[in-house]
Amino acid sequence: MNKRRRITGVVTSNKMDKTVVVETTRKFRHPLYQKVVTRHKHVMAHDEIGCNIGDEVRLVESRPISKNKRWVVEEITKQLEHATESGEVEG
Predict the structure, then answer these.
(1) Whole-structure pTM over 0.85, yes or no?
(2) Handedness of CA 62, 66, 67, 72 (dihedral sign)
(3) Would you put residue 54 in left (φ > 0), alpha (ψ -120 to 50) or beta?
């Protein structure tokens, strides 16, 4: 395994061609108030796999692909069951 950073997140948009927007979440304890704080960050990632909204994915750091893309989708860790137009649920 190489030394590139890997993060996990949830796909929030897949409307672009071969690009997805992934929301990553991190929790930490506030240094003064000791309350658990949640921070969200949106990153753009190159997607050759074909992710859908709601899928949990693992991203790996890469060279700059475009102005905003610095990550590549490595794998889909959890697929969300998506409903088709006829009302059936795909698994």
Answers:
(1) no
(2) negative
(3) left
